[in-house]
UniProtKB/TrEMBL annotation:
SUPFAM superfamilies with a match to the protein in the record: alpha/beta-Hydrolases
Organism whose genome encodes this protein: Flavobacterium sangjuense
Name of this protein: Proline iminopeptidase
Signal peptide start-end: none
Source organism, top-level taxon: Bacteria
Gene Ontology cellular component annotations, sorted alphabetically: membrane
Gene: fpaP
Amino acid sequence: MKIRTIVSSLLLIILFSGCKESKTEDTTKANYLDYSKSDDQATGGIKMIPITTPIGKFNVWTKRVGNNPKIKVLLLHGGPGGTHEFFESFDGYFPNESIEYIYYDQLGSYYSDQPTDNSLWTIDRFVDEVEQVRKALKLDNSNFYLMGQSWGGILAMEYALKYQKNLKGLVIANMMASAPAYNKYAEDVLGPMLPKEVFAQIKEFEAKKDYTNPKYMELLYKYYYSEHILRKPVEQWPESINRAFKHLNPDVYVFMQGPSEFGITGDATLKDWDITSKLKTLTIPTLVIGAKYDTMDPKHMEWISKEVQNGRFLYCPNGSHCSQYDDQEHYFPGVISFLKDVDSGNFKKS
């Protein structure tokens, strides 16, 4: 009799705890698109956030999609000098899962202020900017997930190294932890995968620093971009990607990344960047995304997931640098599972 009572009590606890969780999910879903109590209702979630820099104050553009008090994902776009438009495919997946996400154009990008002082384009200054944006949006370690892709991955890692106490989770997409390692992968692996005569022509253009030559760009788009940036014929690329490339700020991009697409070279300020020795200090749940055809070495990405203390690796077997477009069947389920596992307390590292 006593055993039966204990079993019945346990069943009731499980039943009602499940109901409570379901009720919370239902409430979140019901309120997901309710902006009526928010200060950005009139602008559809858009906020221009003032930030302070060493040379003065500027404004950066953000746009919130949805409401979820427990999961808020701040998106850090690539480039440098890119835009939030690289992430617009998220609209097809995150809302149905009631995930709140925030588009954000970093300073110098198309929808934000675009000062021309190169002293602004440093990692430390960008990290400080992200922290100012976090405070303005009232994000904290009960709900704040930072997701960076490409250059945004560099920025996300650097932010986490300084401010991981503010984070609930971190997502590093399509970015290695070392510029020299990336350069070696591009030179030793990606370049030789091209037809020999094509790679020779590309290297000839680069040796002459003839980066604006239409033939150079034609070769890149036909043989490199459509294989390693987004695996579709260029004429079939999504409109949002074309718009993002159109809006790229070349001054910021070249200053930090350099003019070549085969690594970070020349006088680019990121060319010696390397944080591989610091990764082990990251303790927060971390998802690292790598793809088979990426410009970044997927094996290095998997290594990052093991080097941090609580990492998980997501492999996109059909994806390239923009796996959020060309391998959505693996990319989005993996990202969504990570966010929900961390939120529910069920996160397990790889």
